[in-house]
Amino acid sequence: MAPPVFRFAPSPNGYLHLGHAYSGLMNFDRARETGGRLLLRIEDIDATRCRPEFEAAIYEDLAWLGIDWETPVRRQSEHLAAYRAALDKLSALGLVYPAFESRAEIAKLVSLRETNGPWPRDPDGAPLYPGEAKSLSAPERDRLVASGMPYALRLDMMAACQRATGLTWNELGEGPDGERGTVPARPEAWGDVILARKETPTSYHLSVVVDDALQGVGEIVRGQDLFHATSVHRLLQVLLGLGEPAYRHHRLIRDGEGRKLSKSSRSTGLRALRAAGITPAGIRQLVGLG
Ligand code: GLU
């Protein structure tokens, strides 16, 4: 049997913190325990936020922690054609439409809708897409695209869910509310998610499912902050005819006030901790893997 494949997939938009160390070490340990392979994937599709110095720091910090990974490393920015092909497949199924509202226009539409009561929010707390681009006539849509107006390509969630009902996933870890085992997927909670933008011809959801399948990842170990996103990932996997990995969501490392760590919170950054004299074994201990 082929060895199981794991991956750690950070975005180079800041320096790694204790939460990344925990996730990277969990993947590394799982790969070692199972005789598996560990891949490192650089999720750098957002050209406005990703920087080469953060990518270099990822390699340095992970190596310092004692993690090793297979090369070559897959950098998502080098594989846009693969994501484009997946997007074309979804388009051919009639599940994708362009939406032309800017972020500011969307915010305005949401506040307008909220005059009639609360507008639904996705599991991350962002309002669902409030626009009506889905119902534009084909000629109107073509006219707007041809005019050069920027747009986002969105998934027609209702139509997508009709094609893939009864979705579940196998949770080996634990969701934020203790979910484990066979978990029902609820992609509809996300509304018409963005699959690509004019300036970034893919999205997190799309590229992550394409890459996990292409790289043969069998067990996805990542933080609970991505637990609910798994619903969208399962939907895309089924629509694209991709295999089903297992998921192991892990608890999040929090700061002294119980807040989720962010790349800007300096005190929990791996570089700051290293400069303060903490050793890799000390980091393991700090995250509870000692
Ligand atoms: N690139 C994502 C992040 O840095 C993680 C993606 C994933 O593990 O699915 O949060």
Automatic annotation (TrEMBL):
BP term (GO), one: glutamyl-tRNA aminoacylation
Enumerate the InterPro entries for this protein: aa-tRNA-synth_I_CS (IPR001412), Glu/Gln-tRNA-synth (IPR000924), Glu/Gln-tRNA-synth_Ib_cat-dom (IPR020058), GluQ/Sye (IPR049940), Rossmann-like_a/b/a_fold (IPR014729)
Q: Which UniProt keywords apply?
A: Aminoacyl-tRNA synthetase, ATP-binding, Ligase, Metal-binding, Nucleotide-binding, Protein biosynthesis, Zinc
Q: Which residues form the Glutamyl/glutaminyl-tRNA synthetase class Ib catalytic domain?
A: 7-268
GO MF annotations in UniProt: ATP binding; glutamate-tRNA ligase activity
Task: List the record's Gene Ontology CC terms alphabetically.
Answer: cytosol
State the NCBIfam families in the record. Answer: PRK05710.1-4
Matching entries from PANTHER family are given as:
GLUTAMATE--TRNA LIGASE, GLUTAMYL-Q TRNA(ASP) SYNTHETASE
Q: Which family does it belong to?
A: Belongs to the class-I aminoacyl-tRNA synthetase family.
- Name the UniProt record assigns to this protein: Glutamyl-Q tRNA(Asp) ligase
